[in-house]
Amino acid sequence: MSEPVLQRRDDDRSGSAERAVTVFFTFLLFFVGIALFAVSFEVVDAAKPWVFFGAIASISLAFAIPTTIIPALEDR
What we know:
Layout: H1 17-39, H2 48-74
């Protein structure tokens, strides 16, 4: 029989303070991105692209933090 691709870690940190802070800032970034999308249609024409880009960057970070950044920092 072959080895499983994903193996369980010895230390289960699902209830740690680090995980709670990560989840809090992920949700915060996501909601800030949603708010920036809503605001981007009401600002001055010169600021529209910047606010829209900020919304895209905020939501992108909200998804990147728990999926790529935190696991990469844990493995080093």
